[in-house]
Inverse folding.
């Protein structure tokens, strides 16, 4: 059974590119573009890994991360921040397993995910 990845990304082109890269590696991928809907989707989909954008139209990705950590069904899911905001230290201190700054290279995204999921 393929590992599942859930992407929170409001930019449609970036979300589709990330989805394509991850599907190339054999992952099952779902995408959400809104922070508040994402929390419900994460609990239902139960992904093996989550990628979070920080700058969203309806939420702050760091706040979404905190809410994921407070939920028993999502707190143990590894998270990678993928964002234009260069706050890697903050993201890692919060407990994220990775932090990728956009624009990113295909290899960087794939290697970071593989290092976490094996």
């Amino acid at each position: 059974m393929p590992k599942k990845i859930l992407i929170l990304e409001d930019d449609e082109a970036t979300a589709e590119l990330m989805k394509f890269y991850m599907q190339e590696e054999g992952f099952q991928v779902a995408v959400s573009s809104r922070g508040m809907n994402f929390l419900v989707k994460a609990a239902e989909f139960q992904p093996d890994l989550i990628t979070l954008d920080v700058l969203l139209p309806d939420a702050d990705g760091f706040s979404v991360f905190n809410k994921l950590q407070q939920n028993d069904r999502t707190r143990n899911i590894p998270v990678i921040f993928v964002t234009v905001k260069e706050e890697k230290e903050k993201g890692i201190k919060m407990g994220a397993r990775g932090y990728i700054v956009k624009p990113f290279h295909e290899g960087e995204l794939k290697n970071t995910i593989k290092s976490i999921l094996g």
Strands lie at 4-8, 28-32, 49-52, 79-83, 98-101.
